[in-house]
Amino acid sequence: MSSPESKTPEEPRTRMNAADRREQILGAASRAFAQGGYAGTSTDAVAREAGVSQPYVVRMFGTKAGLFSEVFARAINAIIATFEAELDKIDRDPDAPTVQEQEYWERLGRAYGELVSDRDLLLVMMHGFTAASTPEIGERARAGMSAIYQTLRQRTGCTPDQARSFVADGMLLNTLLAMQAPEHAHEDPALMEMSYCAFGDLLPAFGQASVAD
Fold first, then answer.
1. Whole-prediction pTM value?
2. Same domain, yes or no, for 140 and 189?
3. Is 191 found in the same domain as 119?
4. Residue 1 covered by a domain
5. Containing structural domain, residue 68
6. Is residue 106 part of a domain?
7. CA distance 97 to 93
8. Which of 42, 141, 151, 206 has the fewest CB atoms below 10 angstroms from its CB?
C-alpha cells in the first residue's frame, strides 16, 4: 500500500465547493503569472502555487491560454467594479462634481490608482496586453478594453474624447507602476516630476513622499 507521501494530490486537501476551488486556483494563477508573465509561467508553476496537481489545473481550465484568459478577465472585472462603485458614490453625493469638472475625473483616477497598487493585478493586466498576439488572450484584451470604455461612456455620459483621455492616463499609471517609477523617482528629477503629475496625492502610497522631497 502506498504511503500518503507518495501520492500526488489531485485536488486541494481542504474540501471546497467548485466555485471556491476555482477562485483559489485563479488567485494562485494571478500571483504566478504576475511574477513570471504569460510566456514564463507554466501550468505546473500555477499548480504548485495553488497546492494542487498540474492535471487538476488542466482539467479545470484546459490550456494555459485559457487559464491566463480567466485571470486576465478577473483583473478587468475588478477595474470595472471599481469604477462602478465610485460612480455609484458620485451619483449618491449631492455635492459631487459634474462630469465636466476635473475633480470628477480625479475621483475616478484615485479609485483606479488605489486598485492598481495591487501589483499582481497590475502586472497581470500588463502581461495580458503584451501577450495579445495569442488569439485567445488578444480577444480577451480587446473585449476588456471595450468594456472599460463602454462603462465610462454609459455611466458618465462623457464624450468619446473624455473617455479616451481618461483611459490614456490610466495606461500611463500602469506603465509607470510596472517600471517601478515612483520608487525610483528620486533618482531622476524629470521622472519625479512626471510621476507626481501622474499620481498627484497618491504618490506617497507608491513609495515617494512628495515632489518637493
1. 0.82
2. no
3. no
4. no
5. 18-178
6. yes
7. 9
8. 42
Q: Is 8 contained in some domain? A: no
Domain count, the chain: 2
Contact 166, 105 (CB under 8 A): yes
Question: Looking at the domain assignment, is residue 12 inside a domain?
Answer: no
Cell numbers for 28, please give them: 494562485
Verify that 132 and 53 share a domain, yes or no. yes
Tell me the torsion sign for CA atoms 49, 53, 59, 60. Answer: negative
Written as nine digits, the cell of 60 is 479545470
- Which ranges of 43-202 does DSSP label H, i.e. alpha helix? 43-50, 54-61, 64-92, 102-115, 119-130, 135-156, 160-178, 181-184, 189-199
- Answer whether 205's CB lies under 8 Å from 179's CB: no
Buried b (16+ CB within 10 A) or exposed e, 9-44: eeebeeeeeeeebeebbbebbbbbbbeebbeebebe
Measure the CA–CA gap between 208 and 169, rounded to whole angstroms. Answer: 19
Going by C-alpha positions, the residue among 144, 141, 166, 140 that lies closest to residue 153 is 166
